[in-house]
Structures are given as C-alpha cells and as structure tokens.
Design goal:
about 425 residues; 27 strands; alpha+beta; Jelly Rolls; Seed_Storage-Functional; binds copper (II) ion; seven-stranded antiparallel β-sheet; Cupin type-1 domain-containing protein; binds 2-acetamido-2-deoxy-beta-D-glucopyranose
Length: about 425
C-alpha cells in the first residue's frame, strides 16, 4: 500500500514536472492566431470550412474558452452545402455575400435569406443546409462553435450523401437498414453509392432560385420560426465619432445569445485612429480581423510571470507584459477578461474587427483613457495616494483626452504635431 502510494506520488510528480516543462515551451504569445493555426474541416473545389486550433491545446492560459471553437466557411458563387447536423451550438456572422439557410424538423422546413452583417444561431443537432445565392461573390461566414458532446471537438453528421460526404446511414448493418427503410436492399444500396463530390457542391441557377427565399418574404417577422436573424450593421452604433463606430447586438435582442451568454460586436476603426484603452469586465473577446490592417497591444500579467521566473525579486508583483501583434485580414486575437487592450488602424485603411464575446451577460467595457475613464472618478485623495502625485498632475494626464470610444491614433497625432512623449 505504502509503496504504491509513493510510486503514485512519484508518477504524479513526474507528470507535473513534464506538464510545466511543456508549458514553458509554449509560444511566447498564445493570444494571436493566423492562417497557420487553421485546419481544413471540409473542402471541395467549390469551398471550404476552416477550423481554428483548439484554444485549450494552444495554451493553458486559454483554458477558460477551451470549449469554444472558431471556424470560417467560404463557399463559392452558386453552391450548395449538403444537409447535416453538428454536435455544436453555432453562432454565425455573415462577413460577406448573400445566401439562404434552411433548417428542417420532422414536420416543417424554414428557409431564410442571409446577407452581410447578419447574425443568427443554429442550435446543436439542427438539420441545416445552405446555399450561396450570389452569382459572383463568395459567401463567407465566421462561426463561434460551442461543442455539446466532446469538449472542444466539432463533428458534422451527414445523412443525405453517399461516398463523399459519407452518409452515416452506411454505418448501420444491412438488415437494420432493410427493416428501417422497408425498401429493397439494392435500391438503398445504390442510392448511397452515388454522391462523391463532397459536402460543398455547385448548383445550377434554377436550383439556386428554387431554394432561395423570395425577397420581402414574411420571414423573420411571421411564422413560427425558431431562428432569428439580426443585422448588426443596421443597429444604431453604441459608440460613434469620426474615429470609429462600434455596433453591438444587445443580448436582450436575441434570445439564444442571451441563453448562451455570448454576444457579437463589430468595430469599424477609421484609418489612423484607434480604440480607446479599455478592458472587458467579464467577457473574453475573440477578435477576428474582417478587413484592413493595424496592430493591437494588450497588458498581460500571466506572460510576465512566465518570463520573470528565475530573475530574482527585482520585478514587482503583479507585473505586466506587453502583448502586441500586427493585425491583417484573418488574424484572430483572444483578449481575456480584465486585460487592458487597444486596437490601432493603419493609416491607409479602416480596420474592421468582428468580436465574439464569451461570458458576456454582465460584461462592461471599462474605459482606461479618454473622456469618462475610470481614473477620473477617483476622489482627490485616492488619486494622490495611488499615484503619489498631486491630483492636478493626475487630472492633467487623465483629463486631456476629450474623445471616447475611438480616438486619434499614434501616427496621426505625430503627423499633426501633437505631443507624444516629449
Ligand atoms: C467601415 O467604415 C467605412 C467608412 O465609413 C465604410 O466605407 C465601410 O463600409 C465600413 N465597413 C463596415 C463593415 O461597416
Ligand atoms: Cu494574461
């Protein structure tokens, strides 16, 4: 007994050591993802679904969002995505193009058109298919996936299909299918041998027209539809000035977002401008660059601890590491709750950032600079004690920026002769 206990302890200790050694090998910046971090889930010559690396596998620091995945679907003009269901709840955002989605149940089928800016929800297990209705534009959909079966894993189930996409019916025994279909074996066997083109297929113009919802149809305002579509670009921006606009979908507008404690926002940062410094109180923000270029900076206490190991006691605790990376179309950045953050647009193009926000129900964005920043709210004594400076000094610094939400960016300020740090 005793020996076994010690052996167990030893094995455990070795395991712990190897886990932490592995931790130290992790990339310096686990918060940024690019093309290399996507794998292809589905692919045919007419489109593909790319899935971002599992957050929990990337870094222990991302364990908090370990049961979410991000995916991007791209379908060429006039294509059809074969009906399937998935073991994930999915929040979808149409980044580009025009399509139609159909969801099926045992006694009805609902179809609705989608276009850029639309967000909608597909509950796990819902039989779904979609089309790209446009004749020359790709349909691009960004997805936040929440697995309901195996944590962090996403599987699609195709019934309609054949060899490729492989139909799950074929996993069953012949005698089961004879009985289940009550059809002749040669009939059902030959049916499941025909499809070899994959899950994303070219469709004819007539087929697309027949599967499209007529414009101006009653959906989503009438009927007993389970889904609902909101266009985020039609919302009144919650923040707006010459330096940028922030569009949000308030979860009270969308029941499924509320139920699942997630939300979406879209920031359109004017060229040469930036967001104000801020942090999210509770939400972890997964930012996807939809358009433009720029960079971000974030303050992270976790990475600072990793770096500070073995350097003696010089460093104050906590201490913060600057995390920074260029942003371009397709870059994904994770901004954990509490972490101060800023995103900056390049000088030649607006930077458009889509964000999925997890744990968003009671989230607040606390501004750390600009009008209405939280330091301004401290009383004189608190300012003086905290900074060990006069309150006037503090006010000079925290009271000078009169914009909020979005502000002039660093380079633009230099060009215009503004004082940087003279
Ligand atoms: C972002 O703003 C620019 C300038 O107002 C506009 O042309 C562009 O369409 C906007 N993009 C999105 C996705 O809203
Ligand atoms: Cu951190």
């Amino acid at each position: 007994m005793r020996i076994t206990g010690r052996v167990c302890f030893l094995v455990l200790a070795i395991l712990l050591v190897s886990v932490s050694a592995k931790g130290e090998e992790q990339e310096e910046n686990p918060y940024v993802f690019d093309d290399r971090h996507f794998t292809t889930g589905l692919q045919t010559q007419h489109g593909r679904l790319r899935i971002l690396q599992n957050f929990a596998e990337r870094s222990k620091l991302l364990l908090g969002i370990g049961n979410y995945r991000v995916a991007v679907l791209e379908a060429q003009p006039h294509t059809f995505i074969v009906p399937n269901h998935q073991d994930v709840n999915t929040l979808l955002y149409v980044a580009q193009g025009e399509g139609a989605v159909s969801v099926v149940s045992e006694d009805n089928r609902e179809s609705f058109n989608i276009r850029e800016g639309d967000i909608f929800w597909i509950a796990a297990g819902t039989p779904t298919y979609l089309i790209n209705r446009h004749n020359n534009q790709n349909l691009v959909i960004a997805e936040l996936l929440q697995p309901v079966s195996v944590p962090g894993r996403v599987e699609a189930f195709f019934g309609a299909g054949g060899e490729n996409p492989e139909s799950f019916y074929k996993a069953f025994s012949d005698e089961i299918l004879d009985a289940a279909f009550n059809a002749r074996r040669d009939r059902w066997q030959s049916l499941f041998r025909k499809q070899r083109q994959g899950a994303i297929l070219k469709a004819s113009e007539e087929q697309i027209r027949a599967m499209s919802r007529e414009e101006g149809g009653i959906w989503p305002f009438g009927g007993q539809t389970k889904a609902s579509v909101i266009n985020i670009l039609e919302q009144r921006p919650s923040q707006s000035n010459q330096y940028g606009k922030l569009y949000e979908v308030d979860s009270s507008q969308h029941r499924q977002l509320q139920d699942h404690d997630v939300s979406i926002s879209l920031a359109n940062i004017t060229q040469g401008a930036m967001t104000t410094l801020y942090y999210n109180s509770e939400a972890t923000q997964i930012v996807i660059v939809e358009d433009g270029e720029g960079y971000f900076e974030m303050a992270c206490p976790h990475l600072s601890q990793q770096q500070g190991q073995g350097q003696g006691q010089q460093q104050p605790r906590p201490s913060y590491q600057k995390v920074s990376s260029p942003l371009k179309q397709g870059t994904v950045v994770v901004v954990p709750a509490g972490h101060p953050y800023v995103a900056v647009a390049s000088n030649n193009q607006n930077l458009v950032l889509l964000s999925f926000e997890i744990n968003s129900k009671n989230n607040r964005r606390y501004p750390l600079a600009g009008k209405r920043n939280i330091i301004n709210q401290l009383e004189r004594e608190a300012k003086e004690l905290a900074f060990r400076a006069s309150a006037r000094n503090v006010d000079e610094v925290f009271g000078s920026q009169n914009d909020e939400g979005f502000v002039k960016g660093p380079r633009q300020q230099q060009q215009q002769g503004g004082r940087a740090d003279a």
